[in-house]
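Annotators were shown the component list below and the corresponding predicted structure, then asked to write short factual statements about the assembly.
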Amino acid sequence: MRMSSAFLTDRYELTMLAASLRDGTSSRPSVFELFSRRLSGGRRFGVVAGTGRLLTLLREFHFGEGELRYLRDHDVVDADALRYLENYRFTGTIRGYREGELYFPGSPILTVEGSFADAVVLETLALSVLNHDSAVATAASRMSIAAGERPLAEMGSRRAGERSAVAAARAAYIAGFVATSNLEAGRQWGIPTMGTAAHSWTLLHDSEEDAFRAQVDSLGTDTTLLVDTYDIRAGVDLAIRVAGTELGGVRLDSGDLPIVAGEVRTQLDELGATNTKITVTSDLDEYAIAALAASPVDSYGVGTSVVTGSGYPTAGMVYKLVARQDSAGGWVAVAKASTDKASKGGRKAAFRTLDDGVAIAETIAVSDGFEKVDTAAEHPDARGLQVVLVDNGEIDSSHEGVAGTASAREHHLRVREQLPVRALALSKSDPAIPTRFVDVV
Amino acid sequence: MRMSSAFLTDRYELTMLAASLRDGTSSRPSVFELFSRRLSGGRRFGVVAGTGRLLTLLREFHFGEGELRYLRDHDVVDADALRYLENYRFTGTIRGYREGELYFPGSPILTVEGSFADAVVLETLALSVLNHDSAVATAASRMSIAAGERPLAEMGSRRAGERSAVAAARAAYIAGFVATSNLEAGRQWGIPTMGTAAHSWTLLHDSEEDAFRAQVDSLGTDTTLLVDTYDIRAGVDLAIRVAGTELGGVRLDSGDLPIVAGEVRTQLDELGATNTKITVTSDLDEYAIAALAASPVDSYGVGTSVVTGSGYPTAGMVYKLVARQDSAGGWVAVAKASTDKASKGGRKAAFRTLDDGVAIAETIAVSDGFEKVDTAAEHPDARGLQVVLVDNGEIDSSHEGVAGTASAREHHLRVREQLPVRALALSKSDPAIPTRFVDVV
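Structure shown to annotators:
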């Protein structure tokens, strides 16, 4: 049995598909757009993540025996739709922002073109992946900015669904983290893994000394000892006594970190362990990391807050039909009219307008029609933001797997340099740059 | 290649395992406990969910070729540990709260007994599953209480990681929801699925009338029409004109719902469509549902807020070593000493103390030792909360799959009846009942 991602889908996509086959609208050329109306939580920028994972899931998006049987047995769709789904394979084209790219309100993060039937069924899967991964990457990028040169490790698997944890580790890595505790993320995405011991390791032993000795014996002097199970001061003394002054590091997982980190640094230095690093891991988020900037901390481990998007666990992206052909074959821009959830119809081309290398606007050229509405050449001080991810059903594999993940990380760190300084502040505010829609006649 | 869940694990569990094999502590009989120090967000009760999923993942927890190769190639553990992991299968015993059960601060939700090496490696997987699913179930139960007799459908897949979405649908169902939009949740867990059409369906067509006619033609008069793509009043008129007064329902996905729902009900009644139901789906959470109690709404669809735990996307449960044997074979209760993350060592037996059928306390009997410390028989007005989920490696399959999910839902709805009235309020407060630790000598 082949893996299938096709059931990670809301039922209504298939009922719409079935109804469209019946009334002949299934084949209407259509343009769906995945975008966000706003940035969650007064964030100043968003980070696109999940694209590479989505492309791999798209390869697995087919309706096999098991899926078809369920749809038949539960009368979800009729026989015509079952036949259509049996042969389904996405043959359209997807353009989009590169993974790791920044986004702003209205950025056309993905543009999915195909027949209505082909494109409508990707709604839930695309949103699930992009909303989750982008929420994590956006929070992680803020943490990475707050941490500056100090390395950040992701260790929040226990605070996320077991498979989302793997995706979260990947999204955090793309946004600037350097390692993860999650073994599957290491294997699947090539992310360095880290971790030495928990409190249970110390508690297992008859004494803290036994625990430290056994850990150093097994993992070497270069290991990191967790020193706060009992008394931190005594723990640090013991750690250096057991491992010597070349101990790799000590980890602090509780207490008032800015104060404790300073005390521990002084103590380590007095003991001669001037190269022993301090890593802190207790309930950190971007604000706590920023508050530790002046403390002698060498690295951070972040758990809950990064995997849950630091208060905003989903990015709020939506997937909307923005253009389609009418019965006469002409293109029509379409959008829902309701005031509180309005969106902008039409096909879009997106550019980041730069001034001396600094982003000043998200420029989005909008047309009713299908044709490519604008080109980067017309914007000499702009960077085109969209690339072809799927070309008439052919998935560009360079975005997938270990290589795609590494390249998304590089891209993110590169384009983040183009942000204006005000984008780097952590407080709630408006987006760092405005979104400008330009109508193309 | 068999499915494996063993890599959904933090690296440090395996480094501890390896170090324990080396210093001889790996075989020390140990008791780990999964519990929550507090209830997130001032909630008055928590709902245990994920247990059935965890047991199935435990069946798949083995280290195959691929896992062992990664561990070897990346020097995660030494050759002795690789040999141990190659033969790993959990042979210990897990007791715990039944899925769907309520929990309070300190409730011993799972108690995992086995050798240190056997039990320590389950930490991340157990926490990932229980923290995520319980966060969703707790939010969902509050929504279900707020909705009263009106049915709730879960439709948040797009706002959760693609696999967490399936688990979230299941957790919401256990906590009282009646249906989900997610097809995989329908197939895997036997949850009724629902859904008819999105705004894209209306926008695909040259007119709203074309869209409504095609939907009724495909799904029957009993379908639910989405009436807010353009103008709600005109949409309702059109819906009844197209489908007749026996139209199943109309869906409202935007606007000021308490006002709009009242207007639409009046309009439907005036049109003679007195049996046509109104379902609302716009950004609902438990507070919005409660605010609609007096409005003529027939059912609710809940998305983002339920799958993200309505502001608290993780339940904050931890997995701690609470007792183990010392080198002389005697039992020792153990706990971390730090003030901000203190926990209570020792083996626990848990009872819900009742007064005339209403819960008045979570009573937890604590002993240092391994023996069963207390029995329900000693608490005639109490209900024992722990059942054996895994008995010396034998998993009780009655908690798994479709049957286990249905039984967890029944259990939840039954035990929720025992909550005192003050537990049902939505505002932030203390837990509805106190947790009482009783030391057993």
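Statements collected:
1. The mean pLDDT of chain B is 95.
2. Chain B has two domains: 11-136+312-439, 196-297.
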